[in-house]
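Backbone geometry tokens:
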Amino acid sequence: MPHWLTGSLTCLLILLNTLIGIGPMLVFGLLKALIPNADLRRGCSKAVMWVAETWAEINKRIFHLLLPTQWDVRCDTTLASEQSYLVISNHQTWVDIPALVNAFNRKTPYFKFFLKRALIWVPFLGLAFWALDYPFMKRYSKAHLAKHPEDQGKDLEITRRACEKFQQLPVTVVNYLEGTRFTPGKHRQQQSPFRYLLKPKAGGIAFVVAALGAQMRSVLDVTIVYPDERPPGFWQLVSGQVTRITVDIRCRTLPTQLIDGDYSLDLEYRNQFQQWVSQLWIEKDQRIAALRRELAERP
């Protein structure tokens, strides 16, 4: 099929799947918000997750049926849906999210993303994000914080409150340490020391670890690589123009000394956490280079 027809058909099927799934998800989400009983709320949370996983699984099948994309998923560990995970990934494009779904759906608990607050207004999806208890973040510029210092640390407080909800069930928390999608312009502006990555931010992940470290000992270090130097957009994916997506997953044990600590007040703990994150990023940058060389050598 021509790309425009493939893309139109794929989007139509995804939209139909979304319209079918959004109703039950919102019903269970509203019940969860209204019911005072904790056990019943947990049951509603499980129901919301089941609907979301089913929606994602159908989308996976749509992609595999209609698209020529080869999903090259490599994982050095056995994944379990009863265990909580912290996923750390590089971030280049909206296609990263379908890549993660394809790699993890129904192999780990359903994802919890930290989202920009503006996404709550996206038709259908914003309501689904609310029902799934996705935390909505509002990032403040340095100029804004200089004028309004009272807003300092609000994102981290949102992270802490969100993680309290995550303690009730197994969860997979996804954190993009770069805080935004990689672009050459942002890379130059930051003067990033990495070739393929922006500078990582350790504060958000430190609060996740502080809140969930007791139940989340495994870190899944995910590296996503695309064939072209410029990462594809969502339309390129759904229209069949992406030949291959490589998702490299490596399991890392969270260092014991990082499980308990106060990132805000303990300078030594903060330095240890930042050093650990920096080492992860050094290795990830090297892994991206190796994966790119491998893709370039393919016939």
